[in-house]
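#struct-help
A.M.: can someone run this one for me? Single chain, 177 residues.
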Amino acid sequence: VSAATGQLLWEVPLRTPHTQNCVTPLIYNNLVIYSGLEQPLTALRPVNNNGTWVAEQVWENPATSLYMSSPVIVGSTLYGMTHRNRGQFFAIDPASGKTLWSTRGREAENAAIISAGRLLFLLKDDAELVIARPNATSFDVLRRYTVAESPTWAHPVIDGNRIFVKDAETLTHWTVS
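D.P.: on it. Structure tokens below:
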């Protein structure tokens, strides 16, 4: 959409089996990266050809379809969780779409992923908070903590050395020392 006029410049249909899509698209350099349930993780490059905008597909990665977990980019690596194999964390090169690594599966149904400082905070829906180092070659877990007694669907909030976690019943405050 043109910021100046509100005119639609280009569009790409995204059809999923449901009426919603929870995944937030990412911008990496000149790419728009997006996915949805039963749709591959895809990168498009919007291009203006003599006044007409088109969205050219650059790559797609069908092994990392996303449903409820939005990925993050740290440096030149995209980190996320696919619903495939009952939940797999993964890392992808956002320039090429190549999978760099993925976990074995059965991790969780969903995870809220936050990049803060030099760490990844991955809050799984079963209330396990995984703290990992961004690493393009392996899933580099530093610690795992159980942070609630009921399901966690909201993103944790990181504020300095404080972590706020909302579960189905409460809001808790954790302090990192």
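A.M.: thanks! The chain is about 0% helix and 50% strand.
D.P.: also worth noting: The chain has a mean pLDDT of 94.
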